[in-house]
Structure formats: structure tokens, C-alpha cells
Amino acid sequence: MAQLNPEQGTVTAKCPMCQGAVSSFEWTNREGVEYGAVARHVQSPRGELSVISHRLFRCAGCGSGALGVIDVGPRGIYPGPHPSLLAFTPESGEKLPLPASFPEALLKEFREAESCLGYGCYRAAAGLFRSVLEKTMRINGYDGKGFKNLPDKIDAAAGDGIITASRQKAAHEKIRVLGNDVLHDEWREIPEPDVKSAHHYAQRILEDLYDDRASVLAILERAGRLEPDVASGDSAD
Ligand SMILES: [Zn+2]
């Protein structure tokens, strides 16, 4: 979460171009010249006047640009006595570590979900975390004949001992059901903590499958999951 430093006017935030590292974003160059801002005057329902400043910033680490939206109070002076940061973009979401053997294409989808989470696009993030879970199950042999839907795949992975009973519960309750809300149900606001929970448990399940890959492959082979199976016809649930 970006933080405004009221006295200096700088913003501390995770920079996407610095691989999510915490960086200081400056609003002037070394000569003290502002990068630029536009102001908008607003009036609260109680009649209080305020100035909303849309201000350019620059990452001190990599030099990339960012935009801050700041309530600078009625006098419009920046940095002012009590500025309030309303929005800051782009800001990197939290990137959780994943095993090196996790497939590249799915890693990209997981990272995109994290970016959606960082940008506050919670429904998109929830849908993508569910998608990563389903595709991971599929490439591990939980696909085709005998698997009507994602619940079957999760339960089979638990039955084989690939994931624990607690992970099985989390896969259903924290990831699948939340993603299904996005894919199948009417629009509703999804709370950030719910998507953060899906993020956390998705990482744990992917670690279960890829941290000790040799052992998991041995279990999958014993369970006959890696046999080629051309049957399909899955539903998407
Ligand atoms: Zn940067």
C-alpha cells in the first residue's frame, strides 16, 4: 500500500518496474522542478472546499513514472500540512515465490492475477487464481474421463495424497467457490481479504505440487494419472 510522506511530498510504494521492490517516488527532479500536476476543486457534502491534485511522480530506483491522486486541502499547496493520498498507480501487488519447476505459462497467469490484485481488480484476480488451479490440476493428469468438473479434480488430488485435507478444503472454499462467483454468478463486489486468501492458498497448493516434483511425479505415476487420456467433455465448474 502506497504511503505519502507529508513533509517531503514523496510516496513510498512497491514499483512494478523494480520487480515489486519498495521504492521512493519523487515529485521533483534534482533541480527541484516539479514533474507536473493538475488540480481539481471539489466541495464536500458539508460544503468544505478541497483541492485534488493529480500529480506525476518518478521512481528513484528505475526512473519510471507514476500518478498520485492527493487531497491537498483547501489551499492547494503541495506538500501541504495534511495531504491525503487517495490513489497511486502503478503499484506492484505482492509477488509470492513459486517453485522453479512450476510451468512458465501458468506462472505468467499467476503473476497476472497478482497484478490484478495489486491494481484492485479483485474479480479479475479471483477468476485467474481459479483458472491457474484448474489448469494445474489438468496438466497433472486430473483431466478427461472421470473428472466432470474442478471439484472432482481437487478431491482426486487429495485422495491420491498430493494435497492435504486442509489444502483440499482451502482449494474448494477459498479459490474455487470465489472464482465461480466471478464466472457464473451475478456481479457483486468481492472483498480484498477474500482474494488475498485465494492468492495465499493457491501458492501453497502450487508448492505442494512442485516443491518436491520427483516425489509428486512418482505418486501421480502410481495413481495412473499420467496415462494419456484423450477423453474430454469436462464442464467448467
Ligand atoms: Zn522502479
Structural features:
alpha+beta, elongated, DUF4145 domain-containing protein, seven-stranded antiparallel beta sheet, binds zinc ion, 237 residues, DUF4145, 2 domains
Which stretches are poorly predicted, pLDDT < 50 over at least 5 residues? 229-236
Radius of gyration: 23 Å
Number of strands: 7
Could you estimate the helical fraction of the residues in percent?
25-40%
- The helix-and-strand class reads alpha+beta
Query: CATH topology of the largest domain, what is it called?
Result: Four Helix Bundle (Hemerythrin (Met), subunit A)
Question: What is the CATH C level class of the largest domain, in words?
Answer: Mainly Alpha
- How many domains? 2
How is this structure best described in words?
The chain has 6 helices and 7 strands. It has 237 residues and is an alpha+beta fold. The protein folds into 2 domains: 3-89, no CATH class; 104-222, Up-down Bundle (Four Helix Bundle (Hemerythrin (Met), subunit A)). Strands 1, 2, 3, 4, 5, 6 and 7 form a 7-stranded antiparallel sheet that branches. Strand 4 and strand 5 (49-59) form a beta hairpin. Helix 1 packs antiparallel against helix 2, helix 2 (122-139) crosses helix 4 and helix 3 packs antiparallel against helix 4 (165-184). The longest helix is centred in the last third of the chain and has 20 residues, at 165-184. The structure holds zinc ion (ZN). Zinc ion is lined by residues 15, 17-18, 23, 59, 61-62, 64.
